[in-house]
Design goal:
single chain; alpha+beta; Phosphorylase Kinase, domain 1; 9 strands; about 30% helix
């Protein structure tokens, strides 16, 4: 299918992705999981979660291979790869196209609708737990699909609050309640937080964390975004061409900042996010300033 893994599309902590072709000529992406990935929980998780979905903004799983320790997932092929290639300035220096405001907005809405479906539209509700630009795939027309369900969790019933040991996700996108229950319970609102961080990155054109930076309020990415919102300054100057672009960027900024509120109860649901994005800018209230602190320490 992959001509002996000839055409490598990408690599991550899970393993490698290769381009392949089915007998009928249909192009596919084959994700081969590393053999070091424990007892196969991530593989089973992904198959179990994504096989229950059917939505235009969720990538389609076409099949899987499972033989001993060798595991692979066969997905529809997305020609434009992942969103991260098109939003960070460092990648644009490598020759990748910078997306315009309208296209960024459509991608934001597509991801929001996909997450709304996972949280509310499935027969079995799904929490993704790893929303980030790397896991948002784009087809030839830059239509959006959510991928990589290796860390997802299926939950039955109406409530989405779940008990969990340890954090799930990627540094910079993990909601504070994963680290301390003082912030609230882990739930579908944890995906909302990751989505908010991703939206702010799309607007700012930079990653939300810098491992070389000091942990100060000046370098905390949401503070940087909020400061510009307060001063009515633009974040993505290069792609703003007119008043409409300016309104789109401001709307996405406000929605993103609502999504990363520290208290999960203050974050909107993904259904509400879709409404906010599709509503007028005038109808949106500016959220409180984002707040982040370490869990309280016991006195010495």
């Amino acid at each position: 299918m992959t001509c002996s893994f000839k055409d490598k599309l990408g690599q991550g902590g899970y393993g490698c992705v290769y381009k392949g072709k089915l007998p009928d000529g249909c192009p596919v992406a084959v994700k081969v999981l590393s053999e070091s990935k424990g007892n196969g929980d991530e593989f089973i998780n992904e198959v179990a979660s994504i096989s229950r979905t059917s939505h235009v903004n969720i990538v389609t799983l076409l099949g899987f291979c499972f033989k001993g320790s060798k595991r692979a997932l066969v997905y529809e092929f997305m020609p434009n790869g992942s969103l991260e290639k098109f939003i960070y300035e460092e990648n644009q220096l490598k020759g990748h196209t910078q997306l315009d405001c309208e296209r960024l907005f459509k991608i934001a809405v597509g991801v929001a609708k996909g997450l709304e479906y996972l949280h509310q539209g499935c027969n079995t509700r799904i929490l993704h737990f790893d929303i980030k630009p790397h896991n948002i795939l784009l087809d030839e027309d830059f239509f959006t699909k959510i991928s990589d369900f290796g860390l997802s969790k299926i939950y039955p019933g109406k409530e989405s609050i779940i008990s969990m040991l340890g954090a799930r996700g990627t540094a910079g996108y993990i909601a504070p309640e994963f680290f301390s229950r003082n912030f609230g319970e882990v739930s579908h609102k944890s995906d909302v937080y990751s989505y908010g961080m991703m939206i702010l990155e799309m607007i700012g054109g930079r990653k939300n964390f810098n491992v070389k930076a000091d942990c100060t309020s000046e370098t905390y990415f949401p503070y940087w975004v909020y400061k510009r919102l307060e001063l009515n300054e633009e974040l993505a100057l290069k792609i703003i061409r007119n008043k409409g672009d300016k309104e789109i960027m401001r709307k996405m900024t406000i929605v993103g900042l609502w999504c990363i509120q520290t208290d999960p109860s203050n974050r909107p649901t993904m259904g509400r996010v879709v409404v906010m994005l599709e509503d007028s800018l005038e109808s949106l209230q500016v959220p409180p300033k984002p707040f982040l602190s370490s869990p309280p320490r016991s006195p010495a």
